[in-house]
């Protein structure tokens, strides 16, 4: 091991190396390649080998585009394709709105039909129960149009009650004539002859 002389020895650089240190582009590239961090690592891995890679990437690169696709000569065809694409998007939007409205209309008609069916079932149940029809029925078993009693025990009971009312009225009238005797042989109200008093028979139930 050679003893240290106390001087810092530096390897001399060639003219090309010294000229390269004065080039700003080369200096910046060297500094970029010596950076640390994830972004610097990704840059070093994806950096093109030369400056041509910036405008002409490799066929396997994500930004590669062949010249046949980059330079088009049919401008009118491109415009027509754009118009057709816009028209297609409009038609798809119209179709989507039409389908949505059709579905909403179908749902609305289904709700209407369900409501009508529920209403029909409700009225059938009400007719079967007969609760609401009692509002128009009479409270007595008597027909006010034909002036006849209804057939059945209720009508017979009402007929007997009315006969009893008429019987009591006739009995009261007879009692007034008997008890209110004026000791004359004629009627003091109308001047006619007094009717013979016949015994009244109470009506019998039907």
Describe this structure in words.
There is one protein chain. With 206 residues, the protein is mainly alpha-helical. It folds into three domains: 56 residues, no CATH class; 65 residues; 38 residues. It has seven helices and two strands; from the N terminus they run ααααααββα. It has a two-stranded antiparallel sheet with strand order 1-2. The protein is rod-shaped, with a radius of gyration of 61 Å.
Classification by helices and strands: mainly alpha
Regions with little confidence, pLDDT below 50 for 5+ residues: none
Domain module tally: 3
Tally of alpha and pi helices: 7
Radius of gyration: 61 Å
Largest sheet: 2 strands, antiparallel
Q: Average pLDDT, to the nearest integer?
A: 83
User: What is the approximate shape?
Assistant: rod-shaped
- Relative strand content: under 5%
Measured distance between first and last alpha carbons: 153 Å
Secondary structure blueprint with pairings:
Layout: H1 15-21, H2 24-33, H3 38-46, H4 52-55, H5 67-70, H6 75-129, E1 142-143, E2 148-149, H7 153-179
Antiparallel strand pairs: 1-2
List key phrases describing it.
206 residues; mainly alpha; 7 helices; 2 strands; rod-shaped
Concise overview:
With 206 residues, this protein is mainly alpha-helical. It is built from 7 helices and 2 strands.
């Amino acid at each position: 091991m050679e003893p240290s002389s106390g001087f810092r020895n530096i390897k001399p650089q060639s003219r090309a190396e010294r000229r390269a240190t004065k080039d700003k582009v080369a200096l910046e590239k060297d500094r970029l390649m010596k950076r640390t961090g994830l972004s610097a690592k990704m840059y070093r891995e994806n950096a093109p080998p030369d400056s041509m890679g910036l405008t002409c990437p490799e066929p396997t690169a994500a930004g590669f585009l062949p010249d046949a696709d980059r330079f088009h000569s049919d401008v009118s065809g491109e415009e027509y394709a754009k118009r057709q694409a816009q028209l297609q998007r409009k038609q798809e939007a119209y179709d989507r709105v039409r389908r949505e409205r059709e579905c909403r209309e179908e749902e609305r008609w289904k709700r209407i039909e369900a409501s009508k069916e529920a209403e029909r079932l409700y009225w059938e149940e009400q007719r079967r129960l007969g609760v609401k029809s009692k509002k128009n029925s009479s409270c007595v078993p008597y027909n006010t149009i034909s002036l006849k009693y209804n057939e059945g025990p209720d009508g017979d009971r009402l007929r007997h009650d009315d006969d009893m009312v008429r019987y009591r009225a006739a009995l009261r009238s007879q009692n007034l004539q008997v008890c209110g005797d004026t000791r004359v042989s004629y009627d003091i109200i109308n001047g006619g002859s007094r009717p013979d008093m016949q015994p009244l028979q109470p009506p019998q139930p039907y």
